[in-house]
Amino acid sequence: MNTLDRKGHIGRTREVRKEESSCGNTLNAEQAHPHVASYNDWVDFTLRDADSRDFETLWRIDQQCFVQGIAYSRRELAAYMSLRGAFTIVLTDEESQILGFLVATTRRDGTGHVITIDVLPDARRLGIGSKLLSAAEERLRKLECHSVSLETAVDNRSALLFYKRHQYFTLKTVPRYYSNGVDALVLQKDLLSTAQAS
Ligand SMILES: CC(C)(COP(=O)(O)OP(=O)(O)OC[C@H]1O[C@@H](n2cnc3c(N)ncnc32)[C@H](O)[C@@H]1OP(=O)(O)O)[C@@H](O)C(=O)NCCC(=O)NCCS
């Protein structure tokens, strides 16, 4: 069977289908077990493509970002990262520790799709998600994508504010998209008109 992402409509996976998307049920810092200390004195970071040695770390970050049942299994995450046209960008600190990552893919119709974006709970609100998203958008533009879309849960307030900040607009609502019955919003951004702005 095909696996699929929690935010997209790329394929079908075991019994869960697309409802197992996870952009709705995030863990807060208290629920998660962050591996990072405080980054109030943030100084440096690096963006790079993920390699196979990163996989376990990425999976563990995903487990911290989403509740059980919504977070990806290793098999799911591996499947998305290896989709044709997919790329994974990681952001590391000055000690080469991964603080966040993003998986995206391209589609034949010239659109991009963000499969997931995950920032460790203790590393949020420091611009890491923004750097990952901007890097992915730039990559998609180079791959000649004219727009990018994604799904997020209607109750994922931080993600909605984050995407609003990045000029995503709501395309439609998908009722009961997630396995817990929560609706998803499909968000989209025009990559051509925003090339200079982002
Ligand atoms: C959504 C997520 C990726 C944002 O990452 P981040 O590194 O914290 O984002 P940034 O620091 O770049 O935030 C940029 C802006 O987005 C908005 N924003 C992000 N998180 C916010 C929050 N919790 N509350 C209000 N605004 C928020 C703010 O405008 C923020 O700018 P500001 O800090 O100057 O006010 C992160 O919260 C996360 O990993 N969440 C869990 C997984 C998830 O839900 N992923 C998205 C699923 S679709």
- Derived from helix and strand composition plus strand pairing, the structural class reads alpha+beta
Number of helical runs? 4
Provide the CATH superfamily of the domain at 3-36 and 45-146.
Gcn5-related N-acetyltransferase (GNAT)
- Rg of Cα set: 16 Å
The succession of helices and strands, N to C, reads EHHEEEHEHEE
Task: Report the strand count.
Answer: 7
How do the strands and helices of this protein lay out in sequence?
Elements lengths: L45 E4 L5 H11 L8 H8 L4 E7 L5 E9 L4 E9 L8 H15 L4 E7 L3 H9 L3 E6 L9 E7 L8
Parallel strand pairs: 4-5
Antiparallel strand pairs: 1-2, 2-3, 3-4, 5-7, 6-7
The structure holds coenzyme A.
Using brief descriptors, characterize the structure shown.
single chain, alpha+beta, Aminopeptidase, 7 strands, 22% helix, disordered N terminus
Q: Can you summarize this structure?
A:
This protein is α+β, with helices and mostly antiparallel strands and 198 residues long. The protein has helices at 55-65, 74-81, 128-142, 157-165, and strands at 46-49, 86-92, 98-106, 111-119, 147-153, 169-174, 184-190.
Question: How would you characterize this protein structure?
Answer:
The chain has a domain at 3-36 and 45-146: 3-Layer(aba) Sandwich (Aminopeptidase), CATH 3.40.630.30. The protein has helices spanning 55-65, 74-81, 128-142, 157-165; strands spanning 46-49, 86-92, 98-106, 111-119, 147-153, 169-174, 184-190. It has a 7-stranded mixed beta sheet with strand order 1-2-3-4-5-7-6. Helix content is 22%, strand content 25%. It has 198 residues and is an alpha+beta fold. Bound molecules: coenzyme A (COA). The site of coenzyme A (COA) has 22 residues, from strand 4, helix 3, strand 5 and helix 4.
